[in-house]
Amino acid sequence: MPGFDKYFLMKEADIPAYIRNQMPDYFPRDARLAVKEIGDGNLNYVFRVVEEGTGKSIIVKQAGEQLRISAEMRITTDRNRIESEILLIQHKYAPGLVPKIFKYDTVMCACIMEDLSDHRLMRYALMKHEVFPKFAEDITTYMVNTLLNTTDVVMEHKAKKELVKSFINPELCEITEDLVYTEPYNDAKGRNIVTPENLEFVKKELYTDTALHLEIAKLKFDFMNNAQALLHGDLHTGSIFVKPDSTKIFDPEFAFYGPMGYDIGNVIANLFFAWDNGDAAGNAEFCNWTLKTAVEVIDLFKAKFLAEYKKKASDIMAKTEGFAEYYLDTIIADTAAGAGTELIRRTVGMAQVKDVTTIADRAKRIRAERINIHCAKDLIMNRAKFKTGADFTAAFRRAIDTASKEQI
Ligand code: SR1
Ligand code: MG
Fold first, then answer.
1. Which pTM does this prediction carry?
2. Which ligand has the nearest atom to the CA of 79?
3. 239 C-alpha to center of ligand 2: Å?
4. CATH of 12-113, one of 3.40.50.720, 3.20.20.60, 3.50.50.60, 3.30.200.20
């Protein structure tokens, strides 16, 4: 039996002994444990362990050295430490909105955490056109609390710099720098996935638009250099579990110090992907909910952020009259850009979203992709003009109008 004192990639059969090694008291000594690998992401292995008879359960998540999405891509297994440590911090700032971490193990690069199988992955629930009335409230509480509390506005500056240090995440950031801020505009590594019917459109709108390239270059360098807040770093609807009365945000292995609009923009873009799927199915009621929710996410974030800022700001200059509003304005502009870059990279890049890729009708899929790209360019090129939730959905509606007039 392995001693778990040297890293190896575990299989289902290794997990009962691993749990007994790490958490000997969690299950009775004679418990019969059923294990199933349930990982659905691009990177890691996730094992669900259930005690036969009682149904008591737990999750083991292990980082592999090779990525699931591509065996040629290798990234540090230290990402599991980053994920575990940020979840412990976020649990302090946003209790109830992240899974509980029981233990993490830097040898096997694995963490043991709360099983949230009574929740559903938000992307899949949205693809069934289910709505979650509490989502805007919960996600904005999570974002305001985890982001604002880790900035220089609130934190003592030397303590914040220590956090910046411990969340330096070069390899996962490089994935984002490549997949979000580079390849969608030039296919530099030949990894883009472009729907053939949209190839000419993508060449014109993305590969040869030099004004767009300049704005993306500015955003890429801001992403790499603006250590504003401790981000989740990959806040799409596949990183969120939901049930009607609960929201849990997980999988923050891309965490690092960056511009908070990156996280907020990801949430908005993924609501737009849900709209794409609902539109292709002709579900107007669901589509209205996605846009209403996008409006609420921006407007609630702004209101909660300002209220919390007034209570929590500790830096004497950050308390200068007008600074909070100025700072928030820059965050909303970054949010527009973050939504735009996510819309583009999930439409033409290597890592796409099932909301769009499962649209079976070709014409509807082409239309959805064009809506995303038109909206994205508006959000990026005019980012300083975006102030309210309604501004974001107005851009999306303009994109629908533009795409509807195009020949497909
Ligand atoms: C190579 S990893 C591809 C994507 O999956 C993750 O969830 C991130 O979004 C990353 O960009
Ligand atoms: Mg993930």
1. 0.96
2. 2
3. 6
4. 3.30.200.20
